[in-house]
Amino acid sequence: MTVNHFGEDVAKDYDSGYTDMPVEPVVEFLKGLAGDGSALELGIGTGRIALPLSQAGVAVHGIELSPQMLRRLAAKPGAERIGVTTGDFATAKAPGPFRLAYLVFNTIMNLTTQDEQVACFANVAEHLEPGGFFVIEVGIPDLRRLPPGQNYYPFAVGQDKLGFDEYDVANQGQISHHYKIVDGSVRIVSIPFRYVWPAELDLMARLAGMRLHERVNDWDRSPFTSDSRGHVSVWQKT
């Protein structure tokens, strides 16, 4: 992922889009795996998870491609305790080793090719200590929403905002289009993704020398079922 899709238009409103998402269950889950070790966040962004995890006593280092997101992280209290490496988290190197590495809220999908996603797992394995954990939170591809012959599905409809996903099913591609009215003008942001299946992630982990340790529906560890819309998966370095 060498193209920064999280420029100023995205970064300035990023935190406001997550105000209704509690971070406490995420921090508790990650802290339990990190123990007395350190953690590496891939795609640290504005520090939505890294800052409270650091405040909970875990040493955190982050990798981030977007300088606009990093500027917002740097302006927040406690940011001085977090190390940052600027670069593509599929390939960038950070000073390790780490007990824990993690990717939250579909960030693995920002890598838009299978090769990049495979490289990410290999990069994580290089950074983990033996027995270390890799955590990914990501949605289940919800292709059942698509009527036959249709490749678009709306995810947000409001007075000042419209959002829809565009699917390329043959290549597991997805583009999220965001239209927002700001001061009478329409602002358009389109971000590409590659959706990925749980079994595919497990194979990527095996190629990198990791094995599935746990898969649950959410950070509260409710069971993962056929009806789950997403999952939190944990792999352990062998």
From TrEMBL:
The keyword Methyltransferase applies. Residues 40-132 form the Methyltransferase domain. It comes from the Bacteria. Keywords: Methyltransferase, Transferase. GO terms for biological process: methylation. InterPro entries: Methyltransf_25 (IPR041698), SAM-dependent_MTases_sf (IPR029063). GO terms for molecular function: methyltransferase activity. This is Methyltransferase. The lineage of its organism: Bacteria, Bacillati, Actinomycetota, Actinomycetes, Pseudonocardiales.
